[in-house]
Amino acid sequence: MRRFPQSMSAYSPKEYWTGIAADVRSVDASGLAPVLHPGAPDWFNRLIDRLQFRAIQRALALAGVQRGARILDVGCGTGRWLRRYKELGLVATGVDATPGILALARERGTTAPVVAGEAGCLPFGDTEFDCVSDITVVQHIPRSQQPEALGEMVRVLKPGGRLILLELIRGEDAHVFPRSSQDWIGQAETVGAKLIGSFGQEYLLLDRLFSSAARGLTEGNASHAGTGTAGTAAHSRLARRIYWGMRHLIAPLSTWTDPLAERFCPAHFATHGVFIFGK
Predict the structure, then answer these.
(1) pLDDT exceeds cutoff 50 at 237
(2) pLDDT tens, 85-132?
(3) What are phi and psi of 200, to 5 degrees?
(4) What is the pTM of this model?
(5) Are residues 213 and 150 in the same domain?
(6) Which residue segment(s) compose the domain that 224 sits in?
(7) 48 and 120 in one domain?
(8) Do 188 and 217 fall into the same domain?
């Protein structure tokens, strides 16, 4: 995965996603790597995609979105949600800031209209859509600009329309800017949305525990490593194979136990939150 300096001025979401699109264009037939976990095996991105699809179906039901509704997917990426919304009987439109990503969407069979545009300045008129979805998009926008993007989503919603957010509520990186659940809710309500419902998404407790332990072990080993050699590179490749081999066993088990985790764990134990708002 690409890394950028922590300096906010050095990070540009558009440049980041342009780079991601170029990196995976020839190796990612599914179109999931650019919008999920670049560098992860395809099986893992498919697993996360299934979890997210389950969550969005649940959110659409809670929102009461009916067949034939006009839905805008902000940060539509490679078009996975546009294709699914069409299958669900919704009239979908996508917008994304990265032309390379939109090209990937068309190459992967997206037939819904897709438009180039920034989340903070959506190229649509007021009150055009019955529903707007934002799936792990605003979390990649620096926090100071997130309210502007959320405000634009509310602006293009019809009165009585629905806004669905699926965003990260823990962890942070040079290109990831999560908020707590209450903070996401507060930000959306500040720009005119009203919370209808919310739930935690993607607990994956066993997988997260293993990943955290593996990272700690890797960082400990790295602190004792010398200069890079061919042997070190071979060791890193072997370690990666072992790491993902273990996760191939643990992640599906974690997925199977997620309903239990949601039942017994507070929503803030999840990695993401799903929020449904009305206008």
Answers:
(1) yes
(2) 999 999 999 999 888 888 888 888 889 999 999 999 999 999 999 999
(3) -80, 150
(4) 0.86
(5) no
(6) 205-264
(7) yes
(8) no
Tokens of 155: 């602006």
Taking the mean position of all CA atoms in its chain, how far away is CA 207? Answer: 18
Q: What is the pLDDT of residues 47-74, one digit of tens each?
A: 999 999 999 999 999 999 999 999 999 9
Q: Hey, is 182 helix, strand or coil?
A: helix
In single-letter form, the type of residue at position 98 comes to T
C-alpha to C-alpha distance for 187 and 22, rounded to whole angstroms? 33
Return d(Cα 263, Cα 265) in angstroms, integer. 6
Residue written as token pair 């273990």: 246
Give the mean pLDDT of the chain: 86
Percent of residues, the chain, with pLDDT higher than 70: 81
* 195: its two tokens: 């919370």
Domain at 45, CATH number:
3.40.50.150
Residue 31 to residue 102: CA distance in whole angstroms: 11
Both ends of the chain: CA-CA distance in Å?
A: 37
Q: 34 with 146, same domain?
A: yes
Whether residues 215 and 152 share a domain: the answer is no
Q: 130: closest CA among 54, 55, 88, 67?
A: 67
Angstrom distance (rounded) from CA 199 to CA 163: 14
Q: Which two tokens stand for residue 228?
A: 């890079």
Residue 127: how many other CB atoms lie within 10 Å: 14
Domain count, the chain: 2
- Calpha distance 222→216 (Å, rounded): 10
Same domain flag for 194 and 222: no
